[in-house]
Amino acid sequence: MERWSGRVALVTGASAGIGAAICRRLVEAGMIVVGAARNEERIKALASELANKPGTLTPVKCDVSKDSDILNLFSTIKQKFGGVDVCINNAGMSHNKSLLEGTPQEWREMLDINVVGLCLCTREAVASMQERKVDDGQIIQVSSMSGHRIVPHEATHFYTATKFAVTALTEGLRQELRSAKSHIRVAAISPGIVETEFAGRMNKNEAEGKKFYKNLECLQADDIASSVIHILAAPPHVQIHDILIRPTEQTS
């Protein structure tokens, strides 16, 4: 990780769960981290907690479902730090609705955050790297096991479709970067069940979310952050494409 010390990483969905854990590990590794989320105050609290670590954490308020917020985010990063060397697209969400019960508004919200926002952040990050002739940058998409199989859980079927899109986008971006003779790498991490605030938000019920995670020994947010470090620490000639990681007790 030594080559990343002092370099700039963007983490979306940074206010809690996996995003916060990634921010922590990158700051500990000496990186200049920009944490983006709608809840800026929680990132500020994390930044204060990490104040004595080798790197830094700068909070930026950003709703990745809004194009203007993303463009303003990258403008802010350019003004303060010059640009990004690592972009970790972690923001994601799901509604607790089957395909037969869901609404167009809910589907569009999932698409805007899980797919369109991810694509726009990726486009802007690669443009930032290319503009500064950074040829060893890294894009990491935090996806899901749901991008690789369809489980008989009706409430997640549209969410699953968005993560299948991320699987396709990851390979598509890899091909485009190779065609451009770029050494910028792209990787995905596809976790199974991770104990975060995700289930509570999906069910719009914190107690139900906590109950869900008691069914097995879940992955923890730091387990996913460890996979981020694994990807970044790989030699530049090594392309780690997609890490599938699930709890040992998870059946699907």
TrEMBL record:
Pfam families: adh_short (PF00106). The keyword Oxidoreductase applies. Keywords: Oxidoreductase. The keyword Oxidoreductase applies. It comes from the Eukaryota. Gene3D superfamilies: NAD(P)-binding Rossmann-like Domain (3.40.50.720). One of its GO terms (molecular function) is oxidoreductase activity, acting on the CH-OH group of donors, NAD or NADP as acceptor. Belongs to the short-chain dehydrogenases/reductases (SDR) family. This is Dehydrogenase/reductase SDR family member 11.
